[in-house]
Write a structure and sequence with these properties.
The protein is of the alpha/beta class. It has a domain of 64 residues: Arc Repressor Mutant, subunit A (Orthogonal Bundle). Helix content is 40%, strand content 16%. A three-stranded mixed sheet has the order 2-4-3. A two-stranded parallel sheet has the order 1-5. The protein is elongated and about 40 Å long.
């Protein structure tokens, strides 16, 4: 398997974990959203960018962006439907430095 290309993100989300109120965190299963998946959601869903434009910002190809976004959608849907916590961490990312 070939190594993943570095994905560029605007900023680190900090320590974030989202969980349902119905159960304590230690009794919940969870899904792990990588930093690049988090950034893909921010660019496409929150900023409303088209895949091509969002891919350019992350410095990946449009098909790669599509795979990242699809993976994030599945994980988020799994967490919402199956009452799981969402933790954001990991991935092969670098932060874009502001000028």
């Amino acid at each position: 398997m070939r190594p993943k290309k570095t994905r560029w993100i605007k900023c680190l989300p900090g320590e974030r974990c989202f969980k349902p109120l119905c159960k304590p965190l230690n009794k919940l299963k969870g899904v792990c959203l990588t930093l690049d998946e988090f950034e893909a959601m921010r660019l496409s869903c929150l900023k409303g960018l088209k895949q091509e434009d969002a891919a350019k910002k992350m410095k990946v190809s449009r098909p790669t962006f599509s795979r990242i976004e699809t993976s994030a959608h599945k994980k988020i849907a799994d967490a919402l439907v199956n009452i799981k916590a969402i933790k954001i961490e990991g991935g092969c990312c670098k932060v874009i430095k502001r000028r």
